[in-house]
Amino acid sequence: MEIGGKILNNTTFGQLIEKLLYLTNQKKGTLAKELGYDISYISKWINTKNLPSQKNINQVCKVTAQFIVRSLNDGTRQEFLDYFELNDDIYNDEDIKRYIERGLKESYTVTAEMKNMSIYRDTYSEEHSNSVTHINPSLRKAYLNNDAEVFFKKNGKLDIIISANLYNLNKDDKKAISLMKKTFHNMEPNKAIRIRFLMGFDRNSKDIIYNTILVINMATTYPDIDFKVYNCEVDPNAIISVIKDNTFHSAVFAKDKRCLFTTMSKEKNVVDEMYYSLSDMLRNQGVKVFEEIEPLKMIKNQKYIQYTMGSDLRWLIGSINELLMPEDLFMEIGKMAFGDNLEIMDELQKINLFLQNVTYTSNLKILIYESELKRYISTGELRFFNIPVTLSFKQRERHIEYIENILKESDKVDIRLVEDDFVEEFSHNVNPSLYLSRNIKMTTVHPSEEVNNYLIIRDNEFEDICSNLFDLLWSKKEDVVIKEKEEVINRISKSRIYAKLINEKFN
């Protein structure tokens, strides 16, 4: 039977003991007497100054659970069930006892890990096993992150391989995986962290918008971390992760995407075997989804021109950049970004001419985040070939007026505004960008001090998924996308005029 109930991710062993006593109107002394301990021990557990010994924890959890269940009465039982989100129609006393006992063991494990105690096997009485299995899967995320952090602090490096069909997971697990990169970045961003993600795709997924934007966010944020995504045929009902030389984690799912159980092992032979098995799978079956290219190489190798020469141009502009810029301003900003590099300036001249004479007069579909447009008009911050540059108000005014003129004069260039987030859960993320043509599809990382790469999509399956994504956003998201030309012109014009007034008043 699935334990269920409230997930207590951040609850320490002492906090849970204290809450159980409070809900049953019991005192520390009564529990101490039941356990055969001095009351000072219970106080130290609650204050997290100490914990029961590994040798005694199973008995402590068992006796405490029995004591708490016996203490429930008509006045406290419902409050107890409500707090832990347990259904009174399902949970009898025996079920509640098992729930409490398991919760205490899990909180003990988390608390001990926080205190850097190695207790997995002793806690679960598995002295003769090389793994621990958790029926309640809520702690697997905490374990993986904690194991990674502890190992990184000790060794100064981290090498992780993850295998998961991201499109097939429930949203909680998707979010947990997507936030891992941020977690590792916050440890201490440097080149010693490497993450390789073996991911299965599903172009028929019902939630193509959520899933694809999630992948783009994962690939483009925190670029200082060495993070690679591979398309690979992986088990759709399992998540496998290995921290090299440290820990192996796995989770198994039912068809309804509910996690059945998780397994963890620190046994060296098991960890090594899984790491090298996944490495072999990556090498022999994996297709790298993104190829990283620096802006200078994009320009020098004429990759950028190759992109603009493609037909069926479609842009999702999450950050204002060099596109839709008047000819003279383009070269002005080029000099700001690249200085006196004559070779680059010559290539920029070619790109500029091509954009003016071909791209802006051809059939072109453009989605621009309205919030980003307003931010740019106010601050002047844009990415010129993904290099952060700040423009004067006069420069950005010329830029915006040029966009307005294209809208007014061209019947081929269709510009629409995105006035809200396509996925509410991503409202605090960087706006996704996507640049599609018949022959090249790409995005850009969110620039850091050292990394500002383009990401060329190399996997055919993900190329198709990104094309489908844009088409969905363009034609199906009428609640988010403003498509009437007059309304778009009006909003852009008002933003420009408002920013001009502010600029004139304070400058």
Overview features:
alpha+beta; 19 helices; Endonuclease, Chain A; 507 residues; single chain; 49% helix; 3 domains; eight-stranded mixed beta sheet
What does it look like?
It is a single chain. The protein is an alpha+beta fold and 507 residues long. It has 19 helices and 18 strands. The protein has an 8-stranded mixed sheet with strand order 1-7-6-5-2-3-4-8, sandwiched between helices. Helix 2 crosses helix 3. The protein starts with 12 loop residues before the first helix and ends with a helix. Residues 118-129 have low confidence and may be disordered.
Write the layout of secondary structure elements.
Blueprint: H1 13-23, H2 28-35, H3 39-46, H4 57-71, H5 77-83, H6 93-114, H7 120-123, E1 132-134, H8 140-155, E2 158-164, H9 171-187, E3 193-199, H10 208-220, E4 226-231, E5 238-243, E6 247-253, E7 259-265, H11 268-285, E8 287-288, E9 290-293, H12 295-300, H13 303-309, E10 313-317, H14 327-338, H15 342-357, E11 364-369, H16 370-379, E12 381-384, E13 387-390, H17 393-409, E14 413-418, E15 434-436, E16 441-444, E17 454-457, H18 460-476, E18 481-482, H19 485-506
Parallel strand pairs: 2-3, 3-4, 10-11, 11-14
Antiparallel strand pairs: 1-7, 2-5, 4-8, 5-6, 6-7, 9-17, 10-15, 12-13, 14-18, 15-16, 16-17
- CATH topology call of the largest domain: Endonuclease, Chain A
Helix content: 40-55%
Strand content: 15-25%
The CA-CA distance between the termini, in Å, is 68 Å
Q: Which CATH first-tier class of the largest domain would you pick?
A: Alpha Beta
**Category by helix and strand content:** alpha+beta
How many strand segments? 18
Instruction: Estimate nothing, just give the exact number of structural domains.
Output: 3
Rg, rounded, reads: 28 Å
Which architecture name of the largest domain does CATH use? 2-Layer Sandwich
The coarse overall form would be elongated
Tell me the major beta sheet: 8 strands, mixed
How many separate helices?
A: 19
Spatial order of the strands in the main sheet?
1-7-6-5-2-3-4-8
Mean pLDDT: 85
Low-confidence stretches: 118-129
